[in-house]
Structures are given as C-alpha cells and as structure tokens.
Give the backbone structure.
Amino acid sequence: MACRSSDELKKLVEEARKETVHGRVADYIPALGKADPGDLSIAIQYPGGECVSAGDVEEKITLQSVSKVISLAYVLMERGPGYVFDRVGMEPTGDPFNSIAKLETMAPAKPLNPMINAGALVVTHMVEGSSPDERFEKLLGFVRRLADDETIGYCREVAESELRTADLNRALCYFLKQHDVIQEDVEDLLDLYTRQCAIEMNCLNLARIGLVFALDGKDPRTGGEIMPRDIARICKTFMVTCGMYNASGEFAIKIGIPAKSGVSGGIMGAVPGRFGIGIFGPALDERGNSIAGIRLLELLSKNYSLSMF
C-alpha cells in the first residue's frame, strides 16, 4: 500500500509524542514489554486510495484488543445478532477491561459487552470449527480480507507469552464455563484467543480496516461488501460506547469517533464516511490506552472537526 509522508501529521505526532513520558508499556505481557515507549506513528487511509502517514508506519504490531471488534464482526456474520447477544450484552461498563466483578453480580452471568475480556472470550468461543487451528484460520482469513493483505499472520512469541501469563483470563473462562456460557476446553479457547490477539500488522493495515468500518463494511478498493452495513453499524456503536475501555465516555466527548484500542499501543479509528486511522504508540495510560495515541487523536479531532457528535 503506497502512503505519502505528511509534514502536517509529523508536527502533530511530535506534539503528541511528549505524552509518552507519562505512560508505560504493557510489560505484564513479557513480549510486549520489549516495545520502545517513545514510538508513535499514524496512517490515515482515504476511500479513493490516498494514504498519508507520519512515523514508522511499516512497523509490525499485534492487534491485542483491537481484534475484539473484528472477531465480533465475524461472529455476527457467522451466527447472527440474536445468537450473539443472547450470550453477551450490549452495555458499557465503568470497570477495567479484565474485571471479573460484574460477572459475579449478573444473573445470568453474561458479560456486559464484547469489548471487555470476558465478553471477547465468549465471542471467540462462538467461532465455529473443529479445532483451534481451523477456527483461527477462519478469523485470520477475515482479517486478511479486511486489510486486503494475504501476508498477515500472527506473532508466535507474543501469543506464547500471553498464554503463559493468561491466569486472569483463565479465571474468567472457568467462571463462564461454570455458568454454561462457555462450553469448550478452557485451554483450547485460550490458545485460540491469544493467537487472535497476536495477529500482527502495521498501521497501514490498521487504517485500511478502519476504513472498511468507516464505509459501512464496503471494500474501499472494489466497492464490494465485506460485511453487511448493519453489522458494521453495530461494531462502530460498540467502538464508541466501549472501544476505549473504561475511558470510552471521555474519549467520545473529547474526540468523538468510533475507535478500538489494544494494550500493544494500537488504535484503530473509523471516521464515518471519511477515512480510517491506524495508530501505534506503545506507552499506555493507566486504563490501557496509548497515551500519545489518544493525544494525537485529540489534536486531529480538534484541528479537523472529526467528532460525529
């Protein structure tokens, strides 16, 4: 994908980069702890094929929680909204993304939304297939379609590092299995989920996926349908209400676009009808969002009136 460097974006990146000193990388996952906290890059992909960027947009990053919105889109297409939302809710939460607290007070024990870890594990559990390998290949094929890049794979080192340190997610899975929300071997599900989170791409790919959502599920190159409009709408709504963990309300007020973050420092944004955004900035704030990435989006939203509200 050709992408031209933008001096204007470079200035905004350098301004936002000052925030990295206040963040820290996700070193609780050892493989992610190796990232340079000073990194910051952005790509913006437009419908006509134009792309502008600043920073090292070719650097590979793992999707982490950005994958949650992609797996949700896939499962909604495969299973239908009725099936999915019988098993996972639609409501935002003020709790951290990896909290178990709400599950203990819900009856039935249904995760509040697909963007928290409990909900994402239930969504990944719904991917059909006879083995974790087959199910992962189906998810990966969908990611490749969204990004228009058949070379996309996953980072084994990150997946294995996450699997070794996934005790909290194991606890969530066993709790959900106890209440019959999950009905498969927990280790099989975690194997699939950690590989899903370790799918690897660059900011250009991320921006292209954001553009597909911005265009209501249409392929920006061919005009064909990658996902139905209503499924893209559901996913963008979750991105607005739950996509930035328990900072989603503040993000909606200050920036006001559908976006999904991950603890690798990735952010995927979808400005409806206009363009897709891919950001990488591994220094995180206390809620798990890229601290410089958020600042960069604030500057962009203010300068170019991006808010949909």
User: Anything to note?
Assistant: The chain is about 45% helix and 10% strand. The chain has two domains: 6-60+201-304, 65-198. The domain at 65-198 is CATH 1.10.1500.10 (Probable Glutaminase Ybgj; Chain: A, domain 2). Residues 132-147 form the longest helix (16 residues).
